[in-house]
């Protein structure tokens, strides 16, 4: 596994140029479209081989409680996956036994408030964004997921690849019957 830039923001971080910010913004929009269209083959090609995809579970805590709910990888998480684990999750859609996806879920991903910063690695960039992900299945099953993301994207000869993602939901109780969505 390659040592990659950290998700943690340094005291001073250099903002990316408008051109780089635009390129990464378009990459995030393309990623959202691929997820909406369930084009998982194209989406997984955007994932680096050393990917870490993390969505921690968040508990309601008092401000005085300094428990690290976000970066502590030993705590409960909805996702704490590598690329092979994501590929395994997606492969079940081809089995015909993924009952929670038959009939198919309809998705809309909205990504906004995108900020891009340089990291200590010249080919990796820290990208902050907010998301809204809407799911609808059958006649009445609806879910809305809202939160923030911190990503590391690596520039390669073929474009950008997602190296790390931390998606932080603003929900502390997941009311969905299942969680068959990538954010």
From TrEMBL:
UniProt-recorded Gene Ontology molecular function terms: dioxygenase activity
CDD domains named in the record: ring_hydroxylating_dioxygenases_beta (cd00667)
Keywords, in A-Z order: Dioxygenase, Oxidoreductase
InterPro entries in the cross-refs: NTF2-like_dom_sf, Rng_hydr_dOase-bsu
Keyword Oxidoreductase in record: yes
One Pfam family in the UniProt entry: Ring_hydroxyl_B
Keyword DNA repair: no
One GO process term, biological-process aspect: 3-phenylpropionate catabolic process
Family, per entry: Belongs to the bacterial ring-hydroxylating dioxygenase beta subunit family.
NCBIfam families on file: PRK10069.1
Matches recorded under PANTHER family: 3-PHENYLPROPIONATE_CINNAMIC ACID DIOXYGENASE SUBUNIT BETA, BLR3401 PROTEIN
Name recorded for this polypeptide: Ethylbenzene dioxygenase beta subunit
Annotated organism of origin: Novosphingobium kunmingense
Organism lineage string: Bacteria, Pseudomonadati, Pseudomonadota, Alphaproteobacteria, Sphingomonadales
